[in-house]
Amino acid sequence: xxxxxxxxxxxxxxxxxxxxxxxxxxxxxxxxxxxxxxxxxxxxxxxxxxxxxxxxxxxxxxxxxxxxxxxxxxxxxxxxxxxxxxxxxxxxxxxxxxxxxxxxxxxxxxxxxxxxxxxxxxxxxxxxxxxxxxxxxxxxxxxxxxxxxxxxxxxxxxxxxxx
Length: 163
Hints:
Hypothetical protein af1432; 9 helices; globular
C-alpha cells in the first residue's frame, strides 16, 4: 500500500503546478491529520481520512475546464470516480478506495454525515476554506454551531478564529 507521502507526491504531480490547489489540499490534509490524531482514530480510518483529504478536490481542474467553476456539487459528482481511478494502483483495498470515493463524493454535503472520517474531512475543509477566503466570524460561528461535532475541530476553530 502506498504511503501518505507517496499519495501526496502523486497528487502534487497531478496538480500540474497549480499552487492554489496544492496549498489547499495540503492545508486540508494537515487539519484532517491533526483532528484525526487528536480524536484518536484507528490507523485504517486515519489512513482513509488522510488519503481523502489529499484527493478531496481532485475534480477541480476538470470542473474549471468543463463548467467554468468549481461548484461543490459538481466536484462531488466528478470527483468520486476520479479518486477511484487515481487510487487504483495504490495497493489500497477495494473497500478503502470505495470509502475514499464516498468521502470525495460527499465533502460538500453537510447533512447525514456518516462516520468520523467524513465528519473530520468536512471540518478540515471548512477550516482551510475559511482561513483562505476570509470568512466572517458570523459565518464561522454559524457553520460551527450547525456542522462541527468533534472536540478537536471545535478547539482548532476556537484557536484560529476565537469562536
